[in-house]
């Protein structure tokens, strides 16, 4: 708490803890303070409330949900499950957790504290900061947050915000979540895999713990489905209507870019105040729109004020409501921001400056195809619930305008009512590994709100079997238990385990951190491509992109160790067109992965990057996890045919092989999506001999017939039968005998 803030006395009301206006405005009036016999103390930390607390309390009381506080608290006392239905700006995400904290305080935390899940990590951090401010406590102490690779909580934290996947992972060590008396699942309408899994698993947890309370926050669109899923439970409905003018432009979808530009400049010339948010279909559209608007905006009349274009890429969704000092200064100078995004819009809810929204009505979604083990990028209409959330961004006291670049008929006929559940469109291998791990604790039978496709489940089980994560009975093997300890894709976790055998753990941890963190290459401004490529060439490694990532990380680490200030590191990243925040995140991820390695006592050798033996060992470790992601150049011109299906792809233009024009025949790759470009991303050369030595024989047998398989068969015929039979036995012998005892949930 800040000492310089004025302490103010409460009136006699226990509900409204602020002064009458005459007292509240008397800053610096020592006589008024001394006249107060009793300062009201914050029950959460025992210190007197600051003046800011009373100011924020007034704002909280103006939120639509505040009227429902009594009704909510009454239902919380009498029921185990409560559903709260309200629009995005009603205040449910910030106020309901505080009321639950008050409930836990009233019963002296005998059943634990409060945890509130969110889908997006940026929202987690922002909510925790806001709520700590409103409760007049310290962030990281009474109120904290947990997001992947960052924990800002202590053992004394009363209210925790966290991403849904973090609470899911917590169930591996504490299946019944005994640290919490109230669990709040927020953002249910986002239908993420982790949220759907939690919804199902918590049904069993609630039966085992009758004292546990579950609060479900959702948009109104999902209420009927939730009610049928959980039965007859109390429902708190928050009414929240803001004036929004909706304009449908039926012919604008075919020429969306021209319509968007025309609308932006018409709004700007009108002189009406307020920022503009433009919802586009994908990241490529953001880049294209950014270039055009910047180019056209430079010719505008300066008297109108210059447009500040803010592109929000998927990993930078918090940019609007978490500006740095430079952005804030620019926003004071310039008149209007134009925010370009392809996200759902949840990350923009916190902004009160948006008065105009332009929505193209379509999005590019990743839909996983289990038959070919690849994502397809599909452009399709958004759902009506998503369209409504985008409309709610305009919610404020003054009216806003929503420009829909589609017709009302399109909205009613082509848009689905609800956003599809991620569980029905994504790779389920990680989820199945988690469910197998939870089955050890007796919670493996999950009642999902939407059942995943049987084909996707079978593919996930098959992949885990190939990765040696399952035993002959279909339960988790020793390898599988250790793999589940890592918060990574199972293939990447398997590569790390294999690196323990091949003495390249240090290098594989770096690779794992770099591919898990956001892209380390910066988004390039127009005309900077040649300069950036010239800088990036200094990091290229002839052995492949995975090795290039190690070079970049090592260069960043050397700069960080030898620099006198953080500014020097940021300048170095800027000069080399590298994303400094992504490299910082990679550093954090790597440190946590190393901690896991030490905790479960896996062997760790000193780095030997650069030696011939080490290069071969890194390839072996990568192949041990990614043998299902192999492609062959079928014509010598860079047209790569996947080993598992007949899709043809090219190496990404930033691949070291594309830059040097030296295309290897066989590559192992990290990412591939079926889209307009069909690019293979993060690829490194491998040999067919190495593949046949490390890939499971039964996986090779199940490959579809192809010329590539015939070549591999010829290679296998020349290999020693003994080497192929013993390759997995060697890895098991390398692991400590007590590993299974250490990893099993007690």
Automatic annotation (TrEMBL):
Catalysed reaction equations from the record: ATP + H2O = ADP + phosphate + H(+)
Keywords for the protein's UniProt record, in alphabetical order: Acetylation, ATP-binding, Helicase, Hydrolase, Mitochondrion, Nucleotide-binding, Nucleus
Similarity comment: Belongs to the DEAD box helicase family. DEAH subfamily.
UniProt GO molecular function: ATP binding; hydrolase activity; RNA binding; RNA helicase activity
Protein EC: 3.6.4.13
UniProt organism field: Neophocaena asiaeorientalis asiaeorientalis
Coiled coil (residue ranges): none
Record's subcellular location: Mitochondrion; Nucleus
InterPro entries given in the database record: DEAD-box_helicase_OB_fold, HA2_WH, Helicase-assoc_dom, P-loop_NTPase
GO cellular component: mitochondrion; spliceosomal complex
All residue ranges annotated as the Helicase-associated domain in the record: 459-550
Enzyme class: hydrolase
SMART domains: HA2
UniProt name for this protein: Putative pre-mRNA-splicing factor ATP-dependent RNA helicase DHX32
Region ranges (Disordered): 1-25
């Amino acid at each position: 708490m800040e000492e310089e803030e004025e302490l103010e006395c409460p009136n006699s009301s226990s509900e409204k803890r602020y002064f009458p206006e005459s007292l509240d405005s008397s800053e610096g009036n020592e006589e008024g303070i001394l006249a107060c016999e009793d300062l009201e103390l914050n029950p959460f930390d025992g210190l007197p409330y600051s003046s800011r607390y009373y100011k924020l309390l007034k704002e909280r009381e103006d939120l639509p949900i505040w009227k429902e506080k009594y009704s909510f608290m009454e239902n919380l006392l009498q029921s185990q499950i409560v559903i709260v239905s309200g629009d995005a700006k009603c205040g449910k995400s910030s106020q309901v957790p505080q009321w639950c904290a008050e409930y836990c305080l009233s019963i002296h935390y005998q059943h634990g504290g409060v945890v509130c899940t969110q889908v997006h990590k940026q929202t987690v951090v922002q909510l925790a900061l806001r709520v700590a401010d409103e409760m007049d406590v310290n962030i990281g102490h009474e109120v904290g947050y947990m997001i992947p690779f960052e924990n800002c909580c202590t053992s004394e934290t009363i209210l925790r915000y966290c991403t849904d996947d973090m609470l899911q992972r917590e169930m591996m060590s504490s299946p019944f979540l005994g640290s919490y008396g109230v669990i709040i699942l927020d953002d249910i309408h986002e239908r993420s895999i982790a949220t759907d899994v939690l919804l199902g698993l918590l049904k069993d947890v609630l039966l085992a713990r009758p004292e546990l309370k579950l609060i479900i926050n959702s948009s109104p669109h999902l209420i009927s489905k939730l009610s049928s899923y959980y039965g007859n439970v109390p429902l708190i409905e928050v009414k929240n209507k803001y004036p929004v003018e909706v304009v449908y432009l039926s012919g604008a979808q075919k020429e969306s870019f021209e319509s968007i530009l025309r609308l932006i400049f018409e709004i700007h010339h009108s002189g009406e105040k307020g920022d503009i948010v433009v919802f586009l279909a994908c990241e490529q559209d953001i880049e294209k729109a950014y270039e055009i608007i910047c180019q056209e905006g430079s010719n505008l009349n300066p008297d109108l004020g210059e447009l500040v274009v803010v592109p929000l890429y998927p990993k930078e969704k918090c940019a609007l409501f978490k500006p740095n000092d430079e952005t804030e200064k620019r926003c004071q100078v310039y008149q209007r921001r134009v925010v370009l995004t392809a996200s759902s819009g949840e990350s923009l809810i916190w902004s009160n400056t948006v008065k105009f929204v332009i929505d193209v009505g379509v999005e590019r979604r990743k839909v996983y195809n289990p038959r070919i083990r690849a994502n397809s990028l599909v452009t399709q209409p958004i759902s009506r619930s998503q369209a409504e959330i985008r409309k709610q961004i305009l919610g404020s006291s003054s009216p806003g305008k929503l420009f829909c670049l589609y017709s009302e008929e399109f909205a009613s006929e082509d848009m689905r009512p609800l956003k599809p559940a991620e569980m029905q469109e994504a790779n389920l291998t990680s989820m199945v590994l988690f469910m197998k791990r939870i089955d050890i604790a007796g919670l493996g039978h999950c009642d999902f709100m939407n059942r995943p496709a049987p084909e996707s489940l079978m593919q996930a089980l098959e992949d885990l079997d190939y990765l040696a994560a399952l035993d002959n009975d279909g339960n988790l093997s020793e390898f599988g238990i250790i793999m589940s300890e890592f918060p990574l894709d199972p293939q990447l976790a398997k590569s790390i385990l294999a690196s323990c055998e091949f003495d390249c753990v240090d290098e594989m941890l770096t690779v794992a951190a770099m591919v898990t963190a956001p892209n380390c290459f910066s988004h390039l401004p127009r005309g900077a491509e040649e300069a950036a490529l010239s800088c990036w060439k200094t990091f290229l490694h002839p052995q492949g992109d995975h090795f290039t990532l190690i070079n970049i990380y090592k260069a960043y680490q050397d700069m960080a160790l030898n620099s006198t200030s953080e500014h020097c590191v940021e300048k170095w990243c800027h000069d080399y067109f590298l994303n400094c925040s992504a490299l910082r995140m990679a550093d954090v991820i790597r440190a946590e992965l190393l901690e896991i390695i030490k905790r479960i006592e896996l062997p760790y050798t000193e780095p030997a990057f650069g030696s011939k033996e080490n290069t071969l060992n890194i390839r072996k470790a990568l192949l041990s996890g990614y043998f299902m992601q192999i492609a062959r150049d079928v014509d010598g011109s860079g047209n790569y045919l996947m080993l598992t299906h007949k899709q043809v792809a090219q190496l990404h233009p930033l691949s070291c092989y594309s830059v040097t024009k030296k295309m290897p025949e066989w590559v192992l790759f990290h990412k591939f999506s079926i889209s307009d470009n069909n690019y293979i991303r993060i690829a490194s050369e491998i040999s067919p001999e190495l593949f046949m030595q490390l890939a499971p024989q039964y996986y090779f047998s199940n490959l579809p017939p192809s010329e590539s398989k015939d070549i591999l068969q010829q290679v296998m015929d020349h290999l020693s039968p003994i080497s192929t039979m013993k390759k997995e036995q060697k890895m098991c012998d390398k692991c400590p005998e007590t590993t299974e005892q250490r990893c099993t949930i007690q």
